[in-house]
Design a protein that fits this description.
This protein has about 170 residues and is mainly β. The protein has helices spanning about 35-40, 105-110, and strands at about 1-10, 15, 45-50, 55-60, 65-70, 75-80, 85-90, 95-100, 120-130, 135-145, 150-155, 160-170. Helix content is about 10%, strand content about 45%. The strands form 3 sheets. It has a 4-stranded antiparallel β-sheet, with helices on one face.
């Protein structure tokens, strides 16, 4: 089980991430606010967590790696090159990889087909949110069509996307 999920920078500074299903809550405590932004916006960022008293780190030279744990704290979900999701087991081994899904929202049906550049879909933020049945779920932002997005639920165990939780424009 994943514990002590943190962001880490190239100099080894870490800041704990608050795990919450409330999108309006900050991912950091007020006393860690300055450190959080210093690490999150640095050129090199990785993630770190504890699993069975072993520290696991995903950090690579000159690369930003961000992610978020699954709701059951058994997986870490990471986006790579904004077009692939890599799901890691709690022990740091790869569970599966997932490509961009089909868009599902009514908004995407109206705007995506009119796009000049159809290959501009990308993965954005990964978080926890409440689904339409008020259950906490992993939520993945999928951007498309110059500023539009939808948020789909994601099951890290199966690697499948579920319902569209919401959609809008950035």
């Amino acid at each position: 089980m994943i514990k002590n999920f943190s962001y880490i920078n190239g100099e080894g500074a870490t800041v704990s991430v608050r795990l919450t299903d409330n999108p309006s809550e900050a991912l950091y405590s007020e006393e860690d606010k300055e450190l959080f932004f210093e690490i999150y916006f640095s050129k090199k960022i990785g993630i770190s967590w504890m699993n069975n008293d072993e520290q696991i780190q995903l950090i690579k030279k000159n690369e930003k790696i961000t992610g978020y744990p699954s709701v059951d704290l058994n997986y870490i979900i990471v986006t790579r090159d904004r077009s692939i999701i890599i799901v890691y087991n709690a022990d740091g081994t790869i569970h599966n990889t997932v490509s961009l899904p089909a868009l599902k929202s009514e908004l995407s049906k109206r705007h995506f087909r009119n796009m000049k550049y159809p290959n501009t879909m990308y993965f954005g933020k990964i978080s926890w949110e409440k689904d339409q049945n008020d259950r906490t779920t992993v939520a993945v932002v999928i951007g498309f069509a110059q500023g539009w997005y939808e948020i789909q639920s994601f099951d890290p165990e199966s690697g499948e996307f579920g319902e569209c939780i919401s959609s809008g424009r950035i």
